[in-house]
Amino acid sequence: MSNAVKTALLMLLYGTAALHGHAQQQAMNSMAYNVGANWKFHAGEGKDSSWNAKNYRDQHWASVVSDKPLKEQGQLLQQGFGWYRKQLVFPAPMQQKIAEAEGVQIDLGQFAACEEVYVNGILVGKTGEFPPNFAGYFDQQRRYFVPLEALDLTGDNVIAIKFFDGWSANGGFLNAAVMTVEPASTVDKLKLKVNVQDDDYIFLGEDSIAIAPTIENKGKKSLGATVKIVVTTDAYKPVKSQELKIDIPAHATATMGTFGLKNAEPGFYRYKVSVEMDGGQKLEEQLNVGYEPEKIASPNDEAADFDTFWKTNKAQLANVQPDYQLMLIPEQSKLDYEMYHVSMRSLDNELIMGYYAKPKKAGKHPVIVEYMGYGSKPYFPNQSWDGFAYFVLSIRGQALNEKSNHFGTWFTYGIDNKNTYYYRGAFMDVLRALDFVSSRDEIDGERIAVRGSSQGGALSVVAASLDTRVKALAIGIPFLSDFQDYFQIAPWPKSDVDHYRTQHPEVSWKKVYQTLSYFDIKNLASRIRVPLVMGIGVQDNVCPPHINFAAYNQVKSEKSWMAFPQHGHSTGNAFYEAGLELFRRTLQVGKAR
């Protein structure tokens, strides 16, 4: 997902247990220390390195500033990874305050997208998870408590931050952030954890939804607090609230019992747990849970001419000569595949491109066609032999085609008319990719699978719904579904439509929804006749689980789903492996040797 899209989503909250946020941040302490914008930077994962160590010599690292994007400073990440390092000496007036406070709170400002923070080589906090179990759609404020024993009050301290951003070449500090350090407050030394009484946060059968919050107090003072628990639907409709008084012992963890929700309707729910100290300071956690999602009712709303519309577009695509052009990329062809840059013509004679990994092994091979996320940057397919050929498509105006984009903001382009709407052509690009791989002598056209996440998940549904050449699909956090409910749950892409309508007030919401109904994968999914697996992030507020299941529930073929409880707009490596296993079984592929 592009930085432009991500910026539009920065105000989203993903209340996972891995996130530790303050709903009501205290006023900055008068002893707050602005450590400046200067940092050392090095691209890469630094695996098995000592880059987090206090005595590591980083003189050869690049000098950067945090209040300016890395890309603007000529710095790029390496496979999504990067590191920051900074030395810090506490001013003399702060030292006694820090000792009395039992540590400091460091505030990074807004940061992307997942990271580990080290102080003097000690891990003091993290947000999200690095690949292969990537969970990192988290771009909000970062605040971490650092205990006194991790600090050198009178000497040098080193802060090292390892971070990963899977969507762009930037990541790290956002919105001109400059880190500050201050003596820890009472609330900084508390850790609120909301324990969900189900492993994947999805409750089934007779199980009532239940959570059991705890608060860990790392401070030396016992505290009194008021706890308030509020439950709403995913569309923010009130369901239930509870309040209680608790005592939090010093250097201990306080439990609050179990809070249930019986007789829930099928769907997803938002829990907000707030803890207010007797002194007025407050902390808060939010998270989502689900109940019987396969029973969510989101019926089709397709128009009478739905099938005719897509039949007509497919016929128009068939009349466009593809003119496939392949160009070898030698530097990416060193392992088990020859890598090619591919261009072709699609509906309305639009030029589209992709990367094709042709196996160096002889024979007829199965192929995985991969569709990309909204605004994703180009990437090469797999290059180590695993039994499949690969083709990664860039649909019109995106990724490899972005330099020639003439579709403005893709989601709203032509949204007042089904015949001019952006996704009319984009959906035909999806089928043209199948035409391409079917044209290759080394590909077995009877063994085609498709996959993708977010927009790519939606496009995979399109491929399997409109083209019988697809034999299996793996869809992660699918986009473009159940729009009328979607726009009640998540701020984007409705925000793009709101902006469009301020410029085109003659376009009514009724007209918008009428157009979108032709492109809603919920209305396409019932046409799928092949096996699929779906992965969801339960904390996803970009393509929320409700809309994922709205399409999934229309599928009548073999299907299964996997829920990743603490993931936002991402899924874990287990979903990737489940997709490959489905493809191997369905396409009769032996495991890589």
Verbal overview:
There is one protein chain. With 593 residues, the protein is an alpha+beta fold. The protein folds into three domains: 27-184, Galactose-binding domain-like (Jelly Rolls); 191-295, Immunoglobulins (Immunoglobulin-like); 306-586, Rossmann fold. It has eleven helices and 30 strands. It has a nine-stranded mixed β-sheet with strand order 22-23-24-26-25-27-28-29-30, sandwiched between helices. A hairpin with an 8-residue loop joins β22 and β23. α4 packs across α5. Residues 1-29 have low confidence and may be disordered.
Short account of what is shown:
The protein is α+β, with helices and mostly antiparallel strands.
Main attributes of the structure:
single chain; 593 residues; alpha+beta; Jelly Rolls; Immunoglobulin-like; Rossmann fold; nine-stranded mixed sheet; six-stranded mixed sheet; 19% helix; globular
CATH first level of the largest domain: Alpha Beta
Which segments are poorly predicted (pLDDT under 50) over 5 or more consecutive residues? Answer: 1-29
Number of helices: 11
Shape: globular
Distance between the termini: 34 Å
Instruction: Count every beta strand, where a strand is a DSSP E run of 2 or more residues.
Output: 30
Main sheet, how many strands, which sense, barrel?
Answer: 9 strands, mixed
**Strand neighbour order, sheet with most strands:** 22-23-24-26-25-27-28-29-30
CATH topology of the largest domain: Rossmann fold
The radius of gyration is 26 Å
Provide the number of structural domains.
3
Q: What is the annotated CATH architecture of the largest domain?
A: 3-Layer(aba) Sandwich
- Averaging pLDDT over every residue, what do you get? 91
